[in-house]
Amino acid sequence: MADTADTAASKAAGNTGFDYDVVVVGSGFGGSVAALRLVEKGYRVAVIEAGRRFEDDTLPKTSWRLRKYVWAPRLGMRGIQRMHLIRGEAGVLVLAGAGVGGGSLVYANTLYQPPEPFFKDRQWGHITDWQQELTPFYEQARRMLGVETNRFMTPADEAVRTIAERMGVGDTFHLTPVGVFFGDDETKAGEETEDPYFGGEGPRRTACTACGACMVGCKVGAKNTLVKNYLYLAEKAGVEVLPDTTVNSVVPREGGGYDVRVGRTGGLLRRKRRTISTEQVVFAAGTYGTQQLLHRMRLGGQLPHISPRLGELTRTNSEALLGVERMTGWHRKDDVDHSTGLAITSSFHPDENTHIEPTRYGAGDNLMGLIRTLLIDGGGRAPRWAKFFVEAARKPGTILRGLSVKDWSQRTIIALVMQTKDNSVTVKEKRGLLRRRLIARYGEGEPNPTWIPIAHDAVRMMGEEMNATPGGTWFDLFNIPTTAHFIGGCVIGESPEAGVVDPYHRVYGHPGLHIVDGSSVTANLGVNPSLTITAQAERAMALWPNRGEEDARPELGKPYERITPVAAHAPAVPASAPAATRW
Prior knowledge:
The protein is α+β, with helices and mostly antiparallel strands. The protein is about 20% helix and about 20% strand. The strands form 8 sheets. Strands 1, 2, 12, 13, 14, 15 and 27 form a 7-stranded mixed beta sheet that branches. The protein has a 7-stranded antiparallel beta sheet with strand order 8-18-19-21-17-24-20. Strands 5-6-25 form a 3-stranded mixed beta sheet, with no helix packed on it. Pfam families: FAD_binding_2 (PF00890), GMC_oxred_C (PF05199), GMC_oxred_N (PF00732).
């Protein structure tokens, strides 16, 4: 499983003259789906992943294990949590995942299907009936990811339900749909059992213990990460995964196909660079990674025909990260421990556009507490940082207690806020003094929100119900929102003037290139995007032909036609298994 780029490529080389039929860049939700579904159709597939491979017992014990938790490879940290600060007039702090399995290693297990406005967004709603066309693929994604309703009701959920009732929207409160193995009548928390999803073709699993550490890597083995479903099955079927390998460029070959130039992640020496040849490339490096790579290659001339729409309609899911924290003293054994449960256990909708989820870290996972501070409203003439100093002068005790993150995860519930509103930023690449970097400016639609008033109202109510202090982040004080769900920028359109990819996820201007990660999510969802990324990738791969057979999709650039999905000749999951492919 740990082949190097050289040895894997030499093993795979066949009579096509390419090392692989398809190279997938990234191993997150889109990339893992692509790998499995294409190997089932007979393609020789390699997955290139910048991050390292983790086993359950090698994941970080807490978020303070920086080498395993934080992603900063030049500093020797190859952890699972990426943090990217995109500067500019519409700057944003992006949280994302790293490692074999991509965002599934750090995501909060939460798998909602978005509401109707997503499918009817003006960017793509006129192309087809997306809700109808994607429905069978959402269902397939749920089966593969093992979605069921959260079984743990926590004190925070009781408080959130009360808040929903106070706001007159009690009927919108519900427990979350999650990708977690809870066990069954014969398998209790912490116990191991045979594969429950894939007819014996998947790995053994351990039932959830409600430790709350989902977003720092599930050490129990209960979280349905991609290394326990799509990617596990793909490798078993022959896909080569190349970890610790960064794609530097993708260059068209004379006569067709592409050279994928790679190097060891964090390596500076040219001798560590290699070239892999392939007929087709699937970009699935996450929204930040895919955009960064495509901007570089478009401006550098390697892929000059990528649509100028690249970077436009980039979305933050209209998000905010708020929360409440008990500041009444240090944690005591008789206090409520908010670190137990799943990462996200419930949610509600305070209005038709806004969705709020109570979110937690496990005990000891206190690193993210360093970015929290007082809740400061936006608006008005005074900048928020100035308002902060006024508020701090009024509450010096709160500020002093907030300097410590001792037991932070046990005293805190984060409020993850998302919206379906049509707002966006435009991301472009700018040459800096030492290197190029991405910047963000205001985009189409409404301005990207720097604060969400109804969310601030809800968080203050949470503080009242939970005897806790409401808060935001230090970045909020400078109108830099934080998003865990950075999407868009390579959106679907009916032409290269409208989008970067066509409705089959093929890149305009460069036949043989495809995009199936969060960057091709075309509108704000108002819910966690992982299920949608998976469903879109399932649909895109279902429309590929089996290797060597005729392609039913119209030629790149031709008008969209709805076609029948193509069944794989060698499915990895038995037809009798719960997660068998059914459309």
